[in-house]
TrEMBL record:
This is Hydroxymethylpyrimidine/phosphomethylpyrimidine kinase. The keyword Kinase applies. Belongs to the ThiD family. GO terms for molecular function: hydroxymethylpyrimidine kinase activity; phosphomethylpyrimidine kinase activity. It comes from Blautia caecimuris. Pathway: Cofactor biosynthesis; thiamine diphosphate biosynthesis; 4-amino-2-methyl-5-diphosphomethylpyrimidine from 5-amino-1-(5-phospho-D-ribosyl)imidazole: step 2/3; Cofactor biosynthesis; thiamine diphosphate biosynthesis; 4-amino-2-methyl-5-diphosphomethylpyrimidine from 5-amino-1-(5-phospho-D-ribosyl)imidazole: step 3/3. It comes from the Bacteria.
Length: 264
């Protein structure tokens, strides 16, 4: 049996709903072997982020060397990277190891409102990581910052996605979770704009949706899917994990990655 491996480079979420923990759960349930390089520890739960402790950049570099020199990942997902120095190390290492299928989720602010990226991080991310990316997956507030466009409707999403397509990544997925209507995401790939439709699910527990979606896409790319199929399958996964209706914690709770077990 062939085993496909994927790597997540992201922050740890002590409550297990987002970050490294969400990524690993997603990769396992999507059938790939999961590895991690941790950029920061966060003390957070479903109500918010209390504090953040970044790892030293050299140590992030050591983690990446240890992974790439031994089990070469077929896809890499990048999530929370809070400082320019950490972004720089990731850029250097991914170029050195010629990483493939790189999915960059440009995490800036948690849904609870806490900042997860320091000043100028966005500029550095555009310069260092977007040119290495097979896909970037901003949500609407992140896309507004990165494109400079205000997004109020689907036409605005299309205009912003066009601008984001010029920032160096091979493809862009502008996520519609923060829109007021349906949860439709817009994929721009190979000069095409493809709407990935999604019914809005009335579940207030959406902690970690972005992490989960990007990890599911990375898993699908690791398994050899083309970009559109990888995104469509990941969208199905996130919809099922939301529909399962897990309700944990006092705030916006985590998704149910064990939904498929209900039918076993
Ligand atoms: N209430 C919802 N119903 C259905 N899909 C949702 C809902 N909220 C988010 N999503 C989906 O989850 C994924 C992550 O989107 P989003 O919440 O915008 O990202 P982030 O977590 O980075 O803010 C997208 O595919 C989005 O359409
Ligand atoms: C450690 C860590 N990384 C990322 C996030 C943000 O997660 P995201 O999937 O974008 O979802 P929300 O929690 O913002 O809905 C995080 N909170 N912590």
């Amino acid at each position: 049996m062939s085993v496909h491996a994927a790597l997540t480079i992201a922050g740890s979420d002590s409550s297990g709903g987002a970050g490294i923990q969400a990524d690993i759960k997603t990769m396992i349930t999507n059938g790939v072997y999961a590895m991690s390089a941790i950029t920061a520890l966060t003390a957070q739960n479903t109500t918010g982020v209390r504090s953040v402790m970044e790892v030293p950049p050299e140590f992030l570099g050591d983690q990446l060397d240890a992974v790439f020199e031994d089990i070469y990942p077929e896809a890499v997902k990048i999530g929370m990277v809070s400082s320019k120095e950490l972004i720089q190390v990731i850029g250097e290492k991914l170029r050195f190891y010629q990483a493939k299928n790189v999915v960059v989720d440009p995490v800036m602010v948690a849904s609870s409102g806490s900042s997860l990226m320091k000043n100028n991080g966005a500029e550095m991310m555009i310069k260092e990581l977007f040119p290495l990316a097979s896909l970037i997956t901003p949500n609407i507030p992140e896309a507004e910052i990165l494109s400079g466009c205000e997004i109020k409707n689907k036409q605005d999403m299309e205009a912003a996605a066009e601008k984001l397509s010029d920032l160096g990544a091979e493809a862009v997925l502008l996520k519609g979770g923060h829109s007021i209507s349906d949860a439709d995401d817009l994929l721009c790939v190979e000069g095409q704009k493809i709407w990935i439709r999604g019914r809005r699910i009335h579940n207030p527990n959406t902690h970690g949706t972005g992490c989960t979606l990007s990890s599911a896409i990375a898993s699908n790319l690791a398994k050899g899917m083309e970009m559109e199929e990888a995104v469509r399958k990941a969208k199905e996964y996130i919809s099922k994990a939301l529909e399962a209706g897990l309700d944990l914690g006092k705030g916006s709770g985590p998704l149910d990655h064990a939904f498929y077990m209900a039918n076993l």
